[in-house]
Amino acid sequence: MEVKEFTAASFYRFLDRKKLMGSKCKKCGALFLPPRPFCGQCLENEMEWFQFSGRGKLISYSVVRVGTTMYEEKGYGRDTPYCWGLVQLDEGPRISALLLGADLSRPDSITIGQSLEAIFPDKREEEGERNPVTFRLE
Amino acid sequence: MVRRAKKLTRGVAVIGAGMSHFGAFKEKDSRDLFVEAFQAVLGTVQKGIDPREIEAIYVGNLSSDCFEGQAHVAPIMAEWVGLNPRPATRTEDACASSGVALREGIIAVASGLYDIVLVGGVESMNKLTTARVTDILAAAADAIYEVSVGATFPSLYAQIATVHMDKYGTTEEQLMKVAIKNHDNGALNPKAHFTSSIRDLMNSRIARAKQKGQPIPSWTDEMEFLKDPSANPIVAWPIKLFDCSPITDGAACAILVAEDIARNFTDEPIHVIGTGQASDAQALHGRKDITSLTASKLAAEQAYEMAGVTPKDIQLAEVHDCFTIAEVVATEDLGFFKPGEGSRAAEEGKTARDGEKPINTSGGLKSKGHPVGATGVGQLVEVWEQMSGHAGQRQVARVNLALAHNVGASGSTVVVHIFERR
Question: Distance (Å) from the C-alpha of residue A97 to the closest C-alpha of chain B?
């Protein structure tokens, strides 16, 4: 599959191929996750793809019991909460991610700073729907 | 590059500010709410004003498009208050929409283009289910990278709360104190969405249980009530129901004029002496630190610099408490308290009506209500009432210098204004 443009469409296509891809500015070396075509640091637009290791640490989180319609339709709700948070990748940038592997009945058992790893669940949503960025608490 | 000090090229004054009742009004549309706010503002102009003197109108609105199926709301608001064919412009910066409308009105008068403008905001949210409202509000976050992982507004502010708790030791109990304080204020505001204190709410539930012969809850004070998950369920841990502002319908309006004609309308104009606005990454993950909102700090810095005042000088502030943690962070970002000390300041009563820095005497978004597009000008209504001595039971001692702080989304837009009574 040909992936060229630094767009969300490319990002999610890579994610389906189990790769967490961002962009790197060829001029100043700044890293961007999710990818973008234009460097917010040096204002140049010479980017290249950069694959992240998928390892990082937890910055913040929330256990959600009143979700959006999209998440309610996936079966989440007051008695079946989900957790999402911010992950700081070992390489520096941060990303928002759905977080798996935590005991959601005890939100305070989750520790800020704990290690995480990106996981790539098989795509089971209807054709065209994007799989969310997902990490597992180690 | 030498940065030129920002200033308004001519002075701008507020000659009146008024709002509709805030609440849940399924039978009313945006235009009805706006008419109510317009009639209210006309009633606040001391020497009266012929509305035909208004030259332009700026209206903040987040999403009548989705809430009511109505786009292009500004000309309709102008039409319903009899102001067609004057230019009518809508501003949309999420929950800062009317703070930005206010700023655009100020800039328009300061530029010399107009002498008299109407600024306002409106939102009608209660015709939809809570789930749909959650979706529409979430669209003000990053739809591609935040909403996709399940972000909702309570859970975005929960991210800020978990980091603030981890870094500074802020507690859930301290946040509850913010809710109690704001409901105490809202209980004294006849136009607020919630006009009862949390203690009154607790007592009425106990009374209802007695009346129905149900088990009587054992709450002895507000804190016990708020710690009971059956009364205060988790929405997005650590944010609970009573940490959240409600889904509100309402509108607010203010009239701005060139300073040199202000006294034709009132002997007590309120002068706009500082305005600031900043933007930031829409997604929380695009920011280096989320224990504070960088855009709040920058907008405040601009406003303080233009006004030539410091945070110490501010006698009263309406800040954007869409969630209790947001009020804590705002009081730190605005320089009222040191980073990490906002929650303790609230706990110690420093932000109460009789405290050293009264915050959200209106009841704030928490209790007065949060019709998102109307909130920014709604804050000005409280500043106006306090400064002109018309805040009734909420009145704090003479206020000569006040600040309003309005946030869009999780801090990707912030607008700050400073007002002076001379």
Answer: 6
Residue of B145, B153, B285 to mutate for A, most A C-beta atoms under 10 A: B285
Q: Given CB atoms, is A121 within the 8 Å cutoff of chain B?
A: no
Per the CB < 8 Å rule, is B135 touching A69? yes
Q: B411 CB near a chain A CB, below 8 Å?
A: no
Residue-wise pLDDT for B330-381, tens only, equals: 999 999 999 999 999 999 999 999 999 999 999 999 999 999 999 999 999 9
Q: Which residues pair with B252 in a beta bridge?
A: B19, B121
Q: List strand residue ranges (DSSP E) for B370-412, in order.
A: 401-408
Domain boundaries in chain A? 8-51, 55-137
State which CATH number among 2.60.40, 2.40.50, 3.30.160, 1.10.3470 fits the domain covering A55-137: 2.40.50
Q: How many residue pairs from chains A and B have C-beta atoms closer than 8 A?
A: 112
Is A130 at the interface with chain B, CB within 8 A?
A: yes
What does the mean pLDDT of chain B come to?
A: 97
Q: Are B37 and B122 in contact (CB under 8 A)?
A: yes
Q: How many beta carbons lie within 10 A of that of residue A5, not counting itself?
A: 10
Q: What is the ipTM of this complex?
A: 0.95
A86 contacts chain B (CB < 8 A)? yes
Which residues of B have a catalytic role annotated?
Answer: 95, 370
Out of A87, A112, A130, closest to residue B148 by CB: A130
pTM for this one? 0.97
CA angle in degrees (0–180, nearest 5) for B421-B362-B204: 160
Looking at residue B165, its pLDDT comes to 97
Cα separation, B308 vs B315, whole angstroms: 15
Alpha-carbon distances, residue B348 vs B283, B317, B332, B384 (angstroms):
33, 17, 15, 27
Q: Letter for the amino acid at B370?
A: H
Q: Choose the mutation target among A66, A71, A72, A88 for the interface with B, i.e. most B CBs under 10 Å.
A: A66
* Residues B117-144: tens digit of each pLDDT: 999 999 999 999 998 999 999 999 999 9
